[in-house]
Write a structure and sequence with these properties.
310 residues, OB fold (Dihydrolipoamide Acetyltransferase, E2P), 3 domains, elongated, ribonucleoprotein, Ribos_protein_bS1-like, NA-bd_OB-fold
Length: 310
């Protein structure tokens, strides 16, 4: 049985290398309908995608490039943009041209199988693998299986607010995410903040009296919000010499679980080039029904509830 992962997961696996090592191995893959991967090296003038199989060339005809191309609801840029990147496919046969024999491949067939046997079976609260494909001001798009995209809205990326998804992610980054909604046709919306720990789990990483590193996320008239971790920010007193995006050294004045507050004093602020780090996940299970960020002692309840959809 095939398993469905974001494109690129299979590329360097022993199984994939074995199944693309020769024409005979590719012929065997036809009968078994194994999902394989290779790097796309060229998109020709007819928007057929050519891949390097190692043992021979492979061609994904334009209409087999992705679900939606034949139907007319997906633009050809979805194929063109795969050049230089891994693509998944099944082998459907062999043909020849003036350059010799090449394998006929279908990415669309893999996506249809992934949609039917995996994505449409997901339910809210399922925790899945995803790979960031591109970033927009309103959120991050991620491959959740065989090149099929899902949206991770910016407000679902972390509890600590960010100005752009690039503050958290880089293109190509592998993450875990929670299925938030499943719409008709298999369209998935994701969330991420639930995996990054509760207020108490994040606060436990710090102690009153410590001076630690942070990132200035918001400058308000009443104070400066400084992020200590993706799911924990504290408030420092107002000052005029700081701005959003700066790094800061901050003194932890107090941690107050009952009010979900972290009081800080900014010791210094400065410019620094800081790349997004691999996320640290506190939840490692495969499904969650409910997640409560706020401490039990806090009167204000912040939670996510994942309810089954009909």
């Amino acid at each position: 049985m095939n398993t469905f992962k974001p494109e690129g997961y299979l590329l360097n696996s022993l199984e994939n290398k074995s199944r693309t090592r020769s024409r005979a191995a590719l012929a065997d893959a036809i009968a078994e309908q194994h999902i394989l991967e290779a790097k796309a090296v060229l998109c020709d003038s007819a928007h057929n995608l050519w891949v390097d199989l190692g043992c021979m060339r492979g061609m994904i005809p334009r209409l087999e490039g992705a679900i939606g191309i034949e139907e007319g609801n997906l633009r050809d840029i979805a194929i063109i943009s795969r050049v230089g990147k891994p693509v998944c496919f099944v082998v459907t046969g062999f043909q020849s041209d003036e350059k010799g024999e090449y394998a006929l491949l279908s990415r669309r067939a893999v996506q249809k199988e992934c949609l039917a046997d995996y994505i449409t079976r997901l339910t809210p609260g399922d925790v899945i693998d995803a790979r960031i494909t591109h970033l927009e001001p309103f959120g991050a798009f991620a491959d959740i299986g065989c090149g099929l995209p899902s949206l991770l809205p910016i407000d679902a990326i972390s509890v600590s607010r960010i100005s752009h998804p690039r503050d958290r992610f880089q293109t190509g980054m592998d993450i875990r995410a929670v299925v938030k909604n499943v719409e008709e046709g298999g369209r998935i919306t994701l969330s991420h903040k639930e995996l990054l720990g509760t207020w108490e789990e994040n606060a436990a990483l710090f102690e009153q009296g410590q001076t630690v590193a942070g990132t200035i996320r918001s400058v308000e008239s009443y104070g400066i919000f400084v992020e200590l971790s993706p799911n924990l920010a504290g408030l420092a007193e107002p000052r005029d010499d700081v701005y959003v995006g700066q790094q800061a050294s901050v003194f932890i004045k107090s941690l107050i679980p009952d009010r979900m507050k972290v009081k800080l004093i900014i010791i210094d602020s400065f410019e620094a080039c800081v790349l997004p780090e691999e996320p640290r996940y506190f939840f490692e299970g495969e499904h969650m029904d409910r997640w409560q960020y706020s401490p039990e002692s806090c009167s204000r309840v912040i939670e996510s509830v994942f309810e089954p959809q009909e």
